Amino acid sequence: MKLLFIGDIFGRPGRDMLKLGLQGLVHAHGIDLVIANAENSAAGFGITREIGDQILGYGVDVMTSGNHIWDKKEALDYIDREPRLLRPANYPAGTPGHGVTVVRTRAHVPVGIINVMGRVFMTAIDDPFTLARREAERLRAEGVAVIFVDVHAEATSEKVAMGWYLDGLVTAVVGTHTHVQTADNRVLPGGTAYLTDVGMTGPHDGVIGVDKAPVIQRFLTGRPSRFETATGDPRLHAVVITADETTGRAEAIARLSLDTGALTELAAAAAAAVP
């Protein structure tokens, strides 16, 4: 089985990259299920119903999120109505939406997805470690072998610790939030694929997706600045995880960093393969 996890989709540039390249990626890598973090898909802050439906229409099976999930007011209603949109599961009881789901691949194999958020340098919500383990054990008991965890966190140490804590229990632990792809992808001894941060799908000529000028001004002056989405050098960041669908053990994890040209070639190859 192969899972594709796409890093934080940032604004229209990120959505355009997804539209351009997703089907080509699925074809090129033989992907069985697509997961994407979509919390920044609406102009870099939050998500709307229209944009969420658009992302699902491109071929994403499950959308994960993080601390920006509430940035657009309409997300409060959308997340209750759309089971394919997750918010961190360790928000307190009574928070709209849910943070764990099980979906089936095109071959009807169940895959569990758990979305949690870290607490170091972030909002002090409920313990993500205990919750992630409890949910993973529950899914295992229900016969779900392949389990993917999106840990949305600031601190590298917290994400690395989560990987080791869940090693052997889940198929993959992949980090989001920093928008900078790390190079520490590996399969841990227990069979869990790990990467500290998958990176960002969107413009890379700014500051983690935002136009660089107002960000620099904020650092220089200490005063608030209006942030706008950057536009140049769009890239799609993702990982492909290969796993044994019977045991849930990961066999490989590969990083992807693709520009418009590479995605255009993949899209053309996929189109040419259609009878």
Record the SSE blueprint:
Layout: E1 2-6, E2 8-9, H1 11-29, E3 33-37, H2 49-58, E4 62-64, H3 75-81, E5 100-104, E6 110-117, H4 128-141, E7 146-152, H5 156-166, E8 172-176, E9 186-187, E10 193-195, E11 200-203, H6 212-221, E12 234-243, E13 250-259, H7 260-273
Parallel strand pairs: 1-3, 2-11, 3-4, 6-7, 7-8, 8-10
Antiparallel strand pairs: 1-12, 5-6, 9-10, 11-12, 12-13
Helix pairs in contact: 1-7
The CATH topology label is Purple Acid Phosphatase, chain A, domain 2
CATH architecture: 4-Layer Sandwich
Secondary-structure element pattern, one letter each = EEHEHEHEEHEHEEEEHEEH
Helix tally equals 7
End-to-end separation in angstroms reads 24 Å
Q: Estimate the mean pLDDT confidence.
A: 96
Rg, alpha carbons: 18 Å
Structural class: alpha/beta
Question: Main beta sheet, described?
Answer: 7 strands, mixed
Principal-axis shape:
globular
The beta-strand count equals 13
CATH class: Alpha Beta
The poorly predicted ranges are none
Number of domains: 1
CATH superfamily: Metallo-dependent phosphatases
